[in-house]
Amino acid sequence: MQCQKCGLEIETGEERDLHGRTLCEDCYMDALSPVKTCDPWAVHSAKRLEQMGAGDQFTELQAKILAILKKNDGVRPDILCRELSITPEELEREFASLRHMEKARAEKVGDQIILRLW
Ligand SMILES: [Zn+2]
Ligand 1 centre from 37 Cα, in Å? Predict the structure, then answer.
């Protein structure tokens, strides 16, 4: 018995039938779930939609940043990066959106930048 899609040899009893085609387990699963989980964009937009559907205006990362800012009154960016294991660039990008939404702000204290809630 051969898979009619990839041509792989299928052991008796392991074959799957889909619309009259004999498929191996892998091809069968593939055919049933056209959205490949290895496609980061598909996963990403699905997540985005999920969040929008739930009425959540923040990304997961932004929510985490806000949670930390809420817990501590003023956090240094490098500490935030370490706590969330993200790069300064990632933090900057997320923080820019938060600042734009007037949820968080950066403040200069002495020669230090401190991030806190708006
Ligand atoms: Zn196959």
Answer: 18
- Ligand 1 centroid to 28 CA: how many Å? 7
pLDDT value for 37: 52
- Interval between CA 13 and ligand 1 midpoint (Å): 14
Query: How far, in Å, from the CA of 38 to the mean position of ligand 1?
Result: 18
Amino acid found at 13? G
| Distance of CA 73 from the midpoint of ligand 1 (Å) | 57
Protein fold of 58-117: Arc Repressor Mutant, subunit A (1.10.10)
Q: What pLDDT digit, counting tens, does each position of 55-76 carry? A: 457 888 999 999 999 999 899 9
